[in-house]
């Protein structure tokens, strides 16, 4: 079997293959990752039968861990979109914060909705509302477009059950509940960084909103809207349940007199991410004004279809990671990087390179997680909190940067009426700022956690 520098060169070639196959040859990431997994294992000298076994076990292992979570999350997102709950969430935040803070409202709204919904879909869902709010507030469409895009982007890469971070948690072996809690802590200030950039920079590029529909017309299209409490419930209740499950898993660090026995066992059950998200999906059914089989059958089917591609790519990423974990990379990394103390920064830089080259944040997260997982010990990150912060560092890198090879870049450009040059200045530079700010904040939090725990 290959070792040392030849093995690292093979690894670099595998990554180059994924980049070229997906970015230049338009090969689907599912196929690119699977081919890379097989070829890397064979070229490294692993027995062919073992390579085949590693790929299938890696594919099934990661889906067994997060498959239900991804499907349930897409079902929740479908219900939020089609019931009009997403609009209710935006207006609720606007009412509490105030119309003078419309930019912050759009960023915050995006951050809520992107937890179960892909940021691409979230931006499309809110594009009509974005135009109407820009018209009403007298702001440039570029301002609210970048604010919304930034808010969606932040939780998309940091907070499960969004597929990227939850897949990274599965590959790296991080506790999903802790990743969710830490992801929320990381996301909170970064969302306001996105809003600040929108106000100070994106606002310099004036774009007339020219709304096709008023907010009232948007509401009429949905019909009777769900209540505020009902709209937030499918998002907040699963998060609360998962948080309680994580606390129950560490009773000694919380309150051993309270979280023991049957209570602990039930909290661990309902706090399991798959169970919590399934509960969230049934809560989402309840927010629909006219409950029928169309919701429980057609909408669920659409959600499952939306999840299919995510599941396929996630499974392929797990297969690639399983092959990499069988390679003797640890000694080389220990000798070359172990004493440098770059830990999280290494994960960030690799993810940023993948994102810039590949375009897809999710693929960048999956590829980087697969690369980093076998090296956690060498990088000094093989602890409970180390794995959590590694997932977050990868998420920060996967934002850096969004440009022409990213479908999200073009969705923002088209739905915000931006010229391409404007999008590079208003949005691409924003993702650079968001990514760098995020990794600085993550490193600070890691040091604080190191002192406390």
**N/C terminus separation:** 40 Å
Q: Tell me about the biggest sheet?
A: none
Find the structural class using helix and strand composition: mainly alpha
Total beta-strand segments: 0
Anisotropy-based shape: globular
Order of helices and strands: HHHHHHHHHHHHHHHHHHHH
The share of residues in helices is: over 70%
The low-confidence runs, each spanning 5 or more residues with pLDDT under 50, are 251-255
The total tally of domains equals 1
Rg from alpha-carbon coordinates = 22 Å
Percent of residues in β-strands: under 5%
Continuous helix count: 20
Average pLDDT, all residues: 84
Transmembrane segments: 6-23, 30-46, 58-80, 101-126, 138-159, 171-198, 232-254, 266-288, 308-329, 336-354, 360-381, 424-445
GO cellular component, one term: plasma membrane
GO molecular function: gluconate transmembrane transporter activity
InterPro entries: Glcn_transporter
Provide a concise account of the structure shown.
InterPro entries: Glcn_transporter. Keywords: Membrane, Transmembrane, Transmembrane helix. With 453 residues, the chain is mainly α.
What does this structure look like?
The longest helix is centred in the N-terminal third of the chain and has 36 residues, at 48-83. The protein has helices at 4-24, 29-44, 48-83, 85-97, 102-113, 119-137, 141-158, 163-172, 176-200, 215-222, 228-249, 261-270, 273-286, 293-325, 330-336, 343-358, 361-372, 384-397, 407-415, 420-452. Helix 7 runs antiparallel to helix 9 and helix 8 (163-172) runs parallel beside helix 17 (361-372). It has 453 residues and is mainly alpha-helical. It contains 20 helices and no strands. It has one domain (5-452). The chain crosses the membrane at residues 6-23, 30-46, 58-80, 101-126, 138-159, 171-198, 232-254, 266-288, 308-329, 336-354, 360-381, 424-445. Keywords: Membrane, Transmembrane, Transmembrane helix. InterPro entries: Glcn_transporter. One of its GO terms (molecular function) is gluconate transmembrane transporter activity.
């Amino acid at each position: 079997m290959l070792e040392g520098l030849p093995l690292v060169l093979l690894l670099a070639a595998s990554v180059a293959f994924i980049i070229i196959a997906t970015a230049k040859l338009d090969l689907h990431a599912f196929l690119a990752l699977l081919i890379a997994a097989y070829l890397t294992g064979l070229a490294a000298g692993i027995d062919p039968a073992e390579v085949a076994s590693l790929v299938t076990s890696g594919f099934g292992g990661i889906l067994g861990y997060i498959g239900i979570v991804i499907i349930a999350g897409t079902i929740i997102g479908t219900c939020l979109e089609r019931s009009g709950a997403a609009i209710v969430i935006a207006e609720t935040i606007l009412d509490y914060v105030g119309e003078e803070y419309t930019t912050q409202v759009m960023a915050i709204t995006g951050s809520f909705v992107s937890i179960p919904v892909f940021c691409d879909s979230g931006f499309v869902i809110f594009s009509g509302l974005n135009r109407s709010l820009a018209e009403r507030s007298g702001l440039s469409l570029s301002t609210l477009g970048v604010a919304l895009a930034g808010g969606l982007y932040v939780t998309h890469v940091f907070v499960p059950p969004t597929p990227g971070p939850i897949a990274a948690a599965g590959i790296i072996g991080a506790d999903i509940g802790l990743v969710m809690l830490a992801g929320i802590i990381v996301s909170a200030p970064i969302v306001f960084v996105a809003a600040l950039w929108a106000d100070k920079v994106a606002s310099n590029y004036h774009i007339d909103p020219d709304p096709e529909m008023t907010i009232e017309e948007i509401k009429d299209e949905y019909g009777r809207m769900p209540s505020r409490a009902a709209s937030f419930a499918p998002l907040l209740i699963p998060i609360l349940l998962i948080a309680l499950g994580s606390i129950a898993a560490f009773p000694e660090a919380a309150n051993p007199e309270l979280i023991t026995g049957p209570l602990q066992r039930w909290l661990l059950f309902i706090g399991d991410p798959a169970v919590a998200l399934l509960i969230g999906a049934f809560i989402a059914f309840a927010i629909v004004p006219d409950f029928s089989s169309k919701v429980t059958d057609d909408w669920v089917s659409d959600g499952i279809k939306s999840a299919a591609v995510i599941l396929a790519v996630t499974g392929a990423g797990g297969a690639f990671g399983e092959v990499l974990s069988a390679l003797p990379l640890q000694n080389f990394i220990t000798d070359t990087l172990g004493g440098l103390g770059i830990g999280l920064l290494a994960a960030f830089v690799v993810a940023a390179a993948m994102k810039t080259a590949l375009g897809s944040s999710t693929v960048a997260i999956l590829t980087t997680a697969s690369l980093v997982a076998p090296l956690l010990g060498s990088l000094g990150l093989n602890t409970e909190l180390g794995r959590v912060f590694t997932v977050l560092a990868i998420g920060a890198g996967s934002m850096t940067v969004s440009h022409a090879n990213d479908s999200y870049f073009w969705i923002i450009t088209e739905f915000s009426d931006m010229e391409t040059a404007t999008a590079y200045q208003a949005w691409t530079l924003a993702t650079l700022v968001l990514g760098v700010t995020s990794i600085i904040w993550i490193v600070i939090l890691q040091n604080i956690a190191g002192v406390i725990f």
